[in-house]
Design brief:
Elements (H helix, E strand, L loop, with lengths): L26 H27 L1 H8 L5 H17 L1 H14 L2 H19 L5 H4 L2 H29 L7 H30 L1 H8 L1 H19 L5 H9 L6 H6 L2 H36 L4 H15 L1 H13 L1 H26 L17 H19 L2 H7 L6 H17 L2 H12 L7 H17 L13
Helix pairs in contact: 1-5, 1-7, 1-8, 1-10, 2-3, 3-7, 3-19, 3-20, 4-5, 4-7, 4-19, 5-7, 5-10, 7-8, 7-19, 8-9, 8-14, 8-15, 8-18, 13-14, 13-16, 13-17, 13-19, 13-20, 13-21, 14-17, 15-16, 15-17, 16-17, 16-21
Length: 469
Amino acid sequence: MQDGLVASPIKVDMTARADEAPAAPDVRSIRQVVMASSAGTVIEWYDFYVFGTLAPILAPLFFPGSSETAAFLNTLATFGAGFAVRPLGALVFGRIGDMVGRKYAFMVTLLIMGVATAAIGLLPTVASIGIAAPLMLVFLRLMQGLALGGEYGGAAIYVAEHAPPHRRGYFTSFIQATATLGLLVSLVVILVTRAITGEEAFKAWGWRVPFLLSALLVVMSFYIRRRMHESPVFQQMKAEGTVSRMPIKEAFGTVERWKIFFSVLFGVVAGQAVVFYTGQFFALFFIQKVLKLSLTDSYITVALGIVIGTPFYLLSGALSDRVGRKKMIISGLFLAAITLYPIYRAMMWAGGPVTGEGAAAVALHPNIIVLALLVAAQVLLVTLSYGPMAAFLVESYPARIRYTSMSLPYHLGNGWFGGFTPFIAASMVAAYQSPYAGLVYPIAVCTIGGIIGLLFVREPDATTANDTT
């Protein structure tokens, strides 16, 4: 067996005991696994992203500064803090997932995420308790990041280890879509809450509702996941006695493993990450802070763009089953590098101020559909590189150390390169007084990543992903 890739798949029944020979799960069972895993993961992404969506509201409440820009950047930095600890969560829960089980790991992460998110909704503001308020907020953001560091790998692996090799890209693309759907849910919840409470009440206390709603969503998700069985591949490893006793050492204990780690991180994940956070979060901030659209307009614009673009995750994942994961991902990176600047130029043109007679009476920006289509174009770019990503990562590592091996490069890429994209881009816009300055970072990372990916990343073998030895 090659060090970086794995050998022949073993199809097993997801209810099999460790002492019996399991049978292959049927398509209906796989679909149930996909739906249950995806529903829980959407809720975790909702918890994680509702903070970023509410950044303009939270900024003056927790970071009152000398200027609106400074407070907003402080809030974005706190948003990024949750990403900073994701690699630590990847190691902690990756080790648990490889030693104890996939299901156990993502049950624990769900509870941590839910408690931290609901607690943000109960925090007093800086006006009430001073500096303790932002410190507590940062701490809870760190807990969210720690939980998410273990969530993604567990959900992606759990689905992948149930799926047949020739459809693994398609089935795991549902998990990939959950990140975008989590953002969409946060936008919808915020819009509905604002409509019910009114603008002033929402800024005063209504912003807490989306965070507190997490408690109910977590109970629902916990119930769903509690009924799920352990991954069939992990069951097989337990039956054969091949579960790793030291997954971190095995995953990163040789030069060959580190070569795979760096090629995956810099060749595919870092570029995918900046495309993802540019296409959705920087797009939202660009609409709010540069184009100066209202919060309602900006949320509706991004929500519409997400609705239009999300189905392409499934198409991209399914296409990767035919043409290969690497081709899809690298193509997405180069296409993003080429098209991001023209897309934002078009957004600037379409999002200009409404002037003329009766402008004050306009409920929504007249070009909101055009802006939504431009956001959808960015979501499409995201789907090309992100749709096949779970299948690519799962197939690149042996089953016995898969959770640990894939989680660290994924969360370093998405946590550090991607998570700080809104902060870096917004800072560059403020520093250089150019609305397009923030695009330099994602375009550079995509270009460099695409070149590294072409030269050093191997196409994984889908037929060799579930070897348990």
